[in-house]
């Protein structure tokens, strides 16, 4: 299956230079997969489809939704199966009941996030949950900036801003943070000691990162509820929607 074009709008597997971001997203999908065993799940803005495939390993059914025609065709061909289907539609208009809705690294792309979250709440079956993730503004943007230079992002969130957004649509909101672990934590420690200056001075930059980046895996990240201001990403588990199914 030929890969999709790497535009910066979506994360792709099987691209060595993109592996850090792929693994950073994949660990969250794997964690959610453990929460949705035997459930009917919608993966909104599913992109390439790898996350939908991960969710299908434990869920009863998974529907991946994406408006992009290339992503839809690619995901259908690569990940379609007896318990998986893909639908080409907007997240704002796709409406089917579900036990869980997954919406990762996309809320920062939408014009009206509250309307989107209300829409998700209206789709959830009783006792269902929406899993929403977004990057931490404080880690993504330069100090003091209100937004990074990512052209696809409309609004980026601090921890409390993200909580307030989710609580407008859901009565119960739990937020976890995603952090570096294992070798990525060591790498961050090395950067604090001046590794960036050293590898450039020694001419090791390409040699080192051509080996280091593809070696990153999910175990190099961890989810925890503490120190959210220091998190790379926020993952909200939202229950008890304020807008019920009609």
Write a compact overview of the structure shown.
The chain is α/β, with parallel strands linked by helices and 246 residues long.
End-to-end distance: 41 Å
Helix/strand structural class: alpha/beta
Number of domains: 1
CATH homology superfamily:
Vaccinia Virus protein VP39
Order of strands across the widest beta sheet?
Answer: 3-2-1-4-5-8-6-7
User: What is the global morphology?
Assistant: globular
- Please, how many helices? 9
What portion of the residues fall into strands of 2 or more residues? 15-25%
Percentage of residues in helical conformation: 25-40%
Number of strands: 8
Helix-strand sequence: HEHEHEEHEHHEHHHEE
Largest sheet: 8 strands, mixed
Q: Supply Rg.
A: 18 Å
Q: Can you put this structure into words, describing what you see?
A:
- With 246 residues, this protein is α/β, with parallel strands linked by helices.
- The protein has one domain (16-180, 220-241): 3-Layer(aba) Sandwich (Rossmann fold).
- Helices cover 35% and strands 23% of the residues.
- An eight-stranded mixed sheet has the order 3-2-1-4-5-8-6-7, sandwiched between helices.
- The protein is globular, with a radius of gyration of 18 Å.
- The N and C termini lie far apart (41 Å).
- The model has no long low-confidence stretch (mean pLDDT 93).
Topology:
Layout: H1 19-35, E1 40-44, H2 50-55, E2 61-65, H3 69-79, E3 84-87, E4 98-104, H4 113-123, E5 124-135, H5 137-140, H6 159-169, E6 170-180, H7 182-192, H8 195-202, H9 205-212, E7 221-224, E8 233-241
Parallel strand pairs: 1-2, 1-4, 2-3, 4-5
Antiparallel strand pairs: 5-8, 6-7, 6-8
Helix pairs in contact: 4-6
